[in-house]
Design brief:
heterodimer, A: alpha/beta, 13 helices, B: alpha+beta, five-stranded antiparallel sheet, 12 strands, elongated
Chain lengths: 394, 524
């Protein structure tokens, strides 16, 4: 009896020791993939597309510790491979590098415009990033003007890794209103599953660096990229959706430029659903801000000047917002502003009648009427009142 | 065949020796007769004439009554013998007439002449031998078969100094010593309650040490005492030189890595535990006093928490729980994260670890294990060396060897940091026996982490948890204030509530005192 117990004990110990560590891969043998770029190679006869995937692998020894310091060499290495399905490309790439690819630290995915403009290809590319359990839902997605590989090849000056550089540009962009908040792949998943149109930030490679500005507009129904919003239009977009945190507006007071800094933006959208052809949408934008810079000489303490500035800001906001709405309705003919969602939340029965033709077909969205009204307040004027006085006549 | 005869030969020798001692021992009787010479001979034969056995024969003055004092030199205080016993017996006739009958003389000597405070009459040789071997003096009178046994202890012993294993920053600096009586005195000075009881047991066949069970009648639960006394009666061995022997004989689970008794050198800790309802066990010859029953919360407590104010006490206690966590889990977590779950480490740290581990030849587990073993070796070495060199070895070992190993590329610097942090954390635990048991568990967790990663750590933790919950210390559950949950005891567990709020004794000890420990402050 005791012999059986001992045998049992020994065999269970051996079982644990032999089977447990098959998942063990030491950290220096992993190839950390930190950024991925997707480009279009060409189209094959049977309708499938040849895709080029570029993975940015980290070379940790060049990163070095702060004490030892890194070398002059690049801290990353971009490896590209082509194929039809992303998974097949990944397998092929495993043969090109000595370390097994490890995606748990993936930070950004850059997709070139060519891929995004083909119907359904963008969604197909996203599939592996959503399905693989190694990927996380916090990966950020970007659309690039040129080749995604060129974006990943840029060697930044302050950071060692391009992907980290791009990520910090996106996170630190809150001072500018003309860029979007970073879009995570979890949000893209939600957009892909319902029919609404959405925007994804855009990035472009300029000489010696990257430019992060603007947005790419995706049509929900057609499932492809249909257009872009440039900097100003993105600003209007942020104002209407109330998403922007900070930003600057340029106004003129007595022919002198004043820069007004937005601190708080709140927008209220109300839809008046009288009939399908006669939808009125009123957008009220309330902003509060401070005066960042003036070229003029007026004293900002006078109430008359402040009211004038507020009025100018309101006019500017309405102008920008109307410009964006016009672009969305006339050029893009897609509901990027989220009006459809509001209808779905607040006017559900009405939404059921229009949802099949909301921004395609009949396109009730393009036929709706928008009323934008803004309300601005100046809360602070900085540390000084007047910085100079005007003596001569000009 | 050879083996058989080999052993047989030894047995023959042993038998012969046994016979010889038996014969000699048979030569002295266990009775005390009336003849003085025979009695003294008896004692000489019993102890086989050691040269520190002093037998002082004398006559009581102006009479022909003969008497003798028997004691062992070195154990007795010769001053007391010279001045209080011998002197008085030799001058006894100065002012009075002595009765001539032996028994009446004996009586008068017992009651009126010898001026020693601790004196007894006895008839058995057993008492005499016990007394002499413990620093007493025996007085024989020719013609009487009684002896007088006097307590004249006066051996060399250590003076009271700060306990070496439990220094505190604020608090009394007295520690127990090897002398049982002094230890009892130290406890009595803390608690002057007449309900404080000391019950004596004798442990050991050949060493006959005194063991004292201390408790406060009326606070301690009677079942607890019954159980402890019952367990003490099961001890039957030659000698118990340290309370560790006692602990190992009467503990509940000898396989558990956790100690079920607390041992301390500080009287204030003992007094505090007695007032909570615990029992203390003092053993003659060792400054370490056992306290039972304990729970896992007690293992991480220190009397210092109560001497400072409650915010500091709370901070120190939480720090200790954090230190216990680090001491047990840090190397295991490192192994699990670096070998299995690299995605859980923040990116920059992950890249930096990968960079520094690039040239290291060993996998993470082997590295951690080697460094752990090296740290244990250094610690043991440092404990054996004299104080001055011991400190240097610690620093030399830690810094130089660690640094050299990193430079040689044998271990990665992160490993050195983790191991050093673990060592420091385990030093900050107040009870040494608990720290040792954590060291053991740490290696177990490292194995579990190396095999199954984070899942292994969790499984191992569940196993340890089940073990702790099932463990009992003299019948009291080891995980007591945590589970079963006595919520009113949680004020004194991880936090230390202000002293105005700590009014009740711990519930899990089921104390029988209806009044509370402090009444929450008087209103003036």
């Amino acid at each position: 009896m005791i012999r059986r117990k001992i045998c049992f004990l020994i065999s269970s110990v051996i079982l644990f020791l032999l089977t447990g560590c098959w998942d063990q891969v030491d950290i220096e043998e992993r190839g950390f993939v930190v950024g991925a770029g997707i480009d279009l190679m060409d189209k094959k006869q049977n309708g499938e597309y040849q895709i080029k995937l570029t993975n940015q692998f980290v070379v940790p020894s060049s990163l070095g510790t702060p004490a030892q310091g890194g070398g002059e060499s690049k801290a990353f290495s971009n490896i590209s491979a082509t194929g039809e399905s992303m998974y097949a490309i990944d397998q092929e790439m495993a043969q090109l590098t000595s370390r097994s690819p490890f995606f748990e630290h993936l930070k950004i995915i850059v997709i070139s415009k060519d891929v995004a403009e083909i119907p359904n290809l963008f969604a197909e590319m996203m599939d592996i990033f959503l399905r693989d359990p190694e990927m996380r839902r916090g990966i950020k997605v970007l659309i690039s003007d040129g080749d995604a590989k060129d974006i990943l090849d840029v060697k930044p000056e302050n950071e060692k890794l391009t992907a980290i550089y791009i990520e910090s540009i996106m996170e630190n962009s809150f001072k500018i209103a003309s860029v979007l908040e970073p879009v995570r792949i979890g949000a893209v998943h939600a957009h892909l599953l319902d029919q609404n149109s959405y925007v994804i930030p855009k990035i472009a490679a300029i000489e010696k660096g990257l430019r992060y500005e603007g947005a790419a507009v995706f049509h929900g129904y057609d499932n492809k990229m249909i257009g872009e919003l440039d900097g100003d239009e993105t600003k209007g977009f942020n104002l209407i959706t109330g998403n922007s945190k900070k930003g600057t507006l340029k106004i003129k007071l007595d022919e002198e430029i004043i820069a007004y800094e937005l601190e708080e933006v709140k927008s209220e959208i109300r839809v008046d659903t009288k009939a399908k052809d006669n939808i009125t949408i009123s957008v009220k934008i309330n902003v509060e801000g401070s005066i960042a810079e003036t070229f003029g000489t007026q004293s900002l303490l006078k109430k008359k000047n402040l009211t004038e500035i507020q009025k100018q800001v309101e006019k500017e906001i309405e102008k920008i917002a109307n410009h964006t709405i016009k672009k969305a309705q006339e050029e893009l003919r897609a509901d990027v502003l989220g009006i459809g969602n509001i209808l779905k939340q607040r006017h559900y029965e009405f939404w059921q009648t229009v949802k099949n033709e909301w921004d395609h077909g009949e396109n009730y969205f393009a036929k709706s009427k928008f009323n934008v009204s803004a309300n601005a307040k100046v809360r602070a004027t900085g540390s000084t009142n007047q910085t100079k006085n005007q003596w001569s006549d000009r | 065949m050879v083996r058989g005869s080999f052993f047989k030969r030894n047995k023959d020798k042993k038998d012969k020796k046994q016979e010889k001692t038996n014969n000699e021992q048979e030569n002295f009787s266990i009775e005390i007769g009336k003849d003085l010479e025979k009695n003294l001979d008896n004692i000489r034969k019993m102890l086989d004439k050691p040269n520190d056995l002093i037998i002082r024969e004398f006559t009581i003055r102006h009479s022909d009554h003969k008497g003798a004092l028997v004691f062992i030199d070195g154990l007795v205080d010769k001053d007391v013998i010279n001045n209080r016993i011998l002197l008085r017996l030799q001058r006894v006739n100065e002012r009075r007439d002595l009765p001539s009958s032996d028994s009446k003389l004996f009586d008068i000597i017992y009651r009126e002449i010898i001026s020693v405070s601790d004196i007894q009459r006895s008839k058995t040789l057993d008492d005499v031998s016990n007394a002499i071997l413990y620093g007493g003096t025996a007085f024989y009178l020719d013609g009487i078969d009684d002896v007088l046994i006097m307590d004249t202890k006066g051996w060399e012993s250590r003076s009271i100094e700060e306990p070496m294993t439990e220094p505190v920053i604020r608090g009394p600096r007295e520690g127990f010593v090897e002398n049982l009586r002094t230890n009892m005195v130290l406890i009595r000075r803390h608690i002057q309650d007449p309900n404080l009881r000391f019950k004596t047991h004798q442990i050991g066949r050949r060493s006959k040490r005194n063991l004292v069970v201390t408790y406060i009648d009326g606070i301690t639960h009677p079942d607890l005492l019954k159980e402890i006394n019952r367990r003490l009666k099961t001890i039957d061995m030659d000698d118990a030189p340290e309370s560790g022997y006692i602990e190992q004989w009467i503990e509940d689970s000898f396989l558990s890595p956790f100690p079920q008794f607390l041992n301390t050198e500080r009287p204030d800790r003992v007094a505090f535990s007695l007032l909570e309802g615990k029992v203390a066990i003092l053993l003659d010859g060792t400054p370490f006093v056992l306290i039972a029953p304990i729970s896992i919360g007690n293992a991480l407590q220190s009397p210092e928490d109560y001497y400072e104010r409650w915010t500091i006490g709370t901070l120190l206690r939480s720090l200790r729980y954090l230190a216990a966590f680090i001491a047990i889990f840090a190397p295991a977590l490192y192994i699990a994260l670096v070998s299995f779950h690299q995605g859980m480490i923040p990116s920059k740290l992950a890249f930096s670890i990968a960079a520094t581990r690039d040239g290291v030849p060993f996998p993470a587990f082997v590295e951690a294990f080697l460094m752990g073993v090296t740290m244990e070796l250094l610690r043991e070495a440092g404990a054996r060396l004299p104080k001055t060199i011991g400190q240097t070895i610690g620093i030399v070992g830690g810094l130089v060897i660690g640094d050299a190993a990193v430079q040689a590329g044998v271990v990665s610097p992160i490993m050195v940091i983790v191991v050093a942090l673990t060592a420091i954390a385990s030093f900050s635990l107040p009870a040494y026996s608990v720290a040792i048991s954590f060291r053991l568990i740490r290696f177990g967790f490292m194995f579990a982490a190396a095999i199954f990663g984070l899942y292994g750590i969790i499984i191992a933790y569940i196993m340890v948890n089940i073990h702790i919950v099932n463990l009992k210390s003299i019948g009291v559950p080891y995980s007591a204030p945590f589970a079963p949950s006595f919520f009113s005891d949680w004020k004194d567990l991880v936090l230390r509530a202000p002293i105005q709020v700590l009014t009740k004794r711990p519930t899990y000890l089921k104390t029988t005192d209806p009044e509370s420990a402090n009444k929450g402050g008087q209103k003036t």
